[in-house]
Fold these 4 entries.
Entry 1:
Amino acid sequence: MAGNPKDSKILAYKDMVNQLNKTISAQTERIQSLQKTLEADRLENGCPIKPGYAC
């Protein structure tokens, strides 16, 4: 347990950073999964994969 208010704030910030890192990791995984799904759908439909190109 933190001994003073400054230590408490530091621990709270560390917890916040850990939660933000977990959120970023989860979002990155979702984005990668969606990109794979999109790529598979485009390949299935015979659509070329080009940045900025929509079929």
Entry 2:
Amino acid sequence: MLETAGMSAVFACYNDTIKDIIFTGSLAELPQNERMCRLLGQLHGLRFHLPKHSTFATAIGAAGYAKFEGEPEGSFFEKMKRNR
């Protein structure tokens, strides 16, 4: 499963200038993921980032969105809502 997620990220970066991949979610914290990301990164010329506490990335993003809901026009989250 780790290789599938990693290769999906690699394929998403093909034909693009993106070279940094941030791996989040509970799979990102598995010990074997660090080695897999390092090897995939070397093989495909990409940089994988495994943030500490990445399991909570979705919850943190949702909390930030909820906090800024209704912010004045021009705020970051207001722009995101318009572009959905």
Entry 3:
Amino acid sequence: MVAASAIMSFFDIDEAAEFLRIKPGTLYAWVHQRRIPFRKHGRRVVFFKPDLEGWSHDQAVAPVESPTFLKRGFGARLFGRNRSLKTSGTAEEPQDSLSRKGE
């Protein structure tokens, strides 16, 4: 006889989506892309709870130790640091796009 805890640890699409707090459509896409662990019982897609917990744990992003991205690179450009202003030295008047040649 199979233990009740083993039976309860399988989720269908709706239960797994609720567990992960995503839409079922997103979960179907992830299954199609094989981005998430799943099992097939015949044509039915099921998810084993410990697999989902482990997968979710592996998706965690490590915190950044220091904000070095602000000192150089993208963050510096984003916030205007190390920005060089280029000027041509000549001032041209903007042309009116509606004006015709010869007028």
Entry 4:
Amino acid sequence: MFPKNNSCDYRTYCMPRESNSYCSCDYLPSTKGIAACAIIASVFLGLTIIILFIHSINTSETHSLGMFLSLLPLILLLLAFIFILIALILVGSYLSRDMMHIV
């Protein structure tokens, strides 16, 4: 966590176990991006599992609905893997910077 105010020291005022009203702290944009990508990927994977389950139990479907239920999980899986890849790239690219702030 890093302070929003430049006069605050992140090593003393932004500790997770302390609450300070003088210095409001926030997460880095890269950390927010990693969390957002992980959440979006998990939602897409969950929707894929639900749609595949509905597709497997629904045998009396029309042709257009069957095509939709067979293509949508593939699209959602592709999007989930893209967001997982983005999250991994963000983790790898900002890892050294985060370690430098810890030391």
